[in-house]
């Protein structure tokens, strides 16, 4: 039965981010801890281009913007979005003709709610979006747009201070007259007006915004990083500083020749890079963490029930995958308890990974048997869960592939091996072997699994089977038990006990 067939289809919610450089429609499906985006379209219009000099929105962009907004309203309606809202940022709030533009939009589309955000509201929404992907975020958040830079002090998952500065990439270029050297001074002076940025010393700098995501993609392309996902991509301070320095000094032709460079942002990239360099200096951050979440996800997060927002995002992602692809919702908790005997001294983060692994262990059950391992691997590695860092993705993907008996030398596993250290690879191999044995014994049912147990005694791995429970130590069970014992460096044994 399809997911949600009993309760009806999940709700759809649409938000239009009306920015200084681009206008974007995002349609979300459902109210889950990990947002499911089913539509995402952007139009680069440059509404805020020239605003610094004229005090007005770009006249050439107003007509196209109204046309695009008409399309976005039609798309949202056609897709059945129950909630639709336009949130307008720096260009609309700062331009002298911003109110007239918004009124024209309301006249043309009277059923479309439009909200002009203050700088503080924009910063707080960005913070909510980042915290959806990084629940315990601790450091400084920087969200760069075309017109402004929002900065937020995040203290272990709470936003405690926020400010908005007029150094978005487009506005900074206009203020500096296209002069990079002058732009450096302007950014430095504006950042100096926010003394609490110094609290970023030795902490993380969370980066939000299309221009900075473009920097991450450039670095991924240039270094051959094995996972092309910007969200949770991390650079050391020195790496981020060097990357920004190269981009800030590059002319348009040089930028265009760089792998991963965004064709539509070439003119803005040097100024976004200048802001990053100066922000690194002002905060003293130890590393940069890129976030694909921002204002739009923050808007979405405020619609979530409190209980959903407080869920662990990695476990929530596992639950979602199990609900969609698994066969028995009672099996994952049973697997978690069953494998516990093998990992008695694990740290809390390791236990959470093991629990998530148990939730996703059956997601290949409906796939073609010849491709289950590979299909499940990529389904996990590339899932849209916003709370999973790259290490977690790689670990979970490797576990589920090995649970489906992937060849340990299969090329598709290379991505995970490159992202994990040897100890994590070993742990994934052990857990994958344990889950493979569990499914061989139980047929994927908690009832049969209850007739078995594992325990480690001295140098032995003992498998206990309850007589008459429907399980027995056949050839396939013995083979998988031997493989698990070998992974643990133990001697296998089987005990059959009376009921």
From TrEMBL:
Coiled coil start-end: none
CDD domains: ASKHA_NBD_HpPPX-GppA-like
Name of a matching Pfam family: Ppx-GppA
Domain Exopolyphosphatase C-terminal: 315-489
Ppx/GppA phosphatase N-terminal domain residues: 31-305
InterPro entries documented for this protein: ATPase_NBD, GppA/Ppx_hydrolase, Ppx_C, Ppx_GppA_N
Protein name (record): Ppx/GppA family phosphatase
């Amino acid at each position: 039965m399809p997911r949600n067939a009993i309760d009806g289809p999940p709700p759809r919610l649409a938000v239009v981010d009306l920015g200084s450089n681009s206008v974007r429609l995002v349609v979300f499906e459902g109210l889950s801890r990990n947002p499911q985006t089913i539509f995402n379209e952007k139009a680069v219009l440059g509404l805020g281009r020239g605003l610094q000099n004229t005090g007005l929105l770009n006249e050439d962009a107003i007509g196209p913007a109204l046309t695009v907004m008409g399309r976005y309203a039609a798309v949202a309606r056609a897709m059945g979005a129950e909630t639709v809202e336009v949130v307008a940022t720096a260009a609309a709030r700062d331009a002298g003709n911003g109110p007239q533009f918004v009124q024209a939009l309301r006249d043309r589309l009277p059923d479309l709610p439009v909200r002009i955000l203050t700088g503080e509201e924009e910063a707080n929404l960005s913070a909510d979006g980042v915290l959806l992907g990084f629940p315990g975020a601790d450091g400084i958040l920087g969200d760069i747009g075309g017109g402004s830079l929002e900065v937020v002090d995040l203290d272990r998952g709470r936003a405690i201070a926020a400010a908005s500065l007029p150094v978005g990439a487009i506005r900074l270029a206009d203020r500096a007259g296209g002069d990079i050297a002058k732009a450096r001074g302007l950014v430095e002076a504006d950042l100096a007006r926010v003394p609490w940025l110094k609290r970023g010393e030795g902490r993380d700098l969370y980066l939000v915004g299309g221009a900075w995501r473009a920097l991450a993609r450039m670095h991924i392309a240039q270094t051959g990083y094995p996972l092309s996902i910007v969200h949770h991509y991390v650079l050391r301070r020195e790496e981020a500083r060097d990357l920004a320095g190269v981009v800030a000094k590059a002319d348009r032709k040089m930028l265009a020749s760089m792998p991963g460079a965004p064709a539509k942002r070439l003119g803005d990239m040097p100024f976004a890079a200048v802001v990053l360099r100066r922000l690194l200096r002002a905060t003293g951050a130890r590393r940069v963490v890129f976030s694909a979440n921002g204002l739009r996800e923050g808007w979405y997060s405020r619609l979530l029930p409190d209980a959903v927002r407080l869920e662990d995002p990695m476990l929530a992602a596992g639950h979602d995958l199990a609900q969609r692809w698994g066969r028995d919702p009672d099996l994952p908790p049973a697997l978690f308890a069953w494998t516990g005997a093998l990992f008695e001294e694990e740290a809390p983060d390791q236990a959470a990974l093991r629990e998530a692994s148990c939730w996703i262990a059956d997601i290949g059950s409906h796939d073609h048997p010849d491709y289950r391992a590979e299909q499940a691997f990529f389904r996990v590695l590339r899932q849209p869960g916003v709370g999973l860092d790259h290490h977690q993705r790689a670990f979970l993907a490797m576990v589920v592939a090995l649970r489906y008996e992937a060849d340990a030398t299969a090329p598709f596993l290379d991505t995970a091996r490159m992202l994990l250290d040897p100890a994590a690879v070993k742990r994934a191999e052990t857990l994958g072997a344990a889950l493979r044995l569990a499914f061989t014994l139980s047929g994927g049912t908690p009832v049969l699994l209850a007739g078995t147990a594992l325990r480690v005694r001295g140098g032995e791995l003992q498998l206990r089977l309850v007589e008459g429970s429907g399980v027995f130590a056949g050839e396939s069970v013995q083979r998988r038990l031997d493989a698990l014992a070998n992974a643990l460096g133990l001697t296998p044994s089987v005990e059959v006990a009376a009921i």
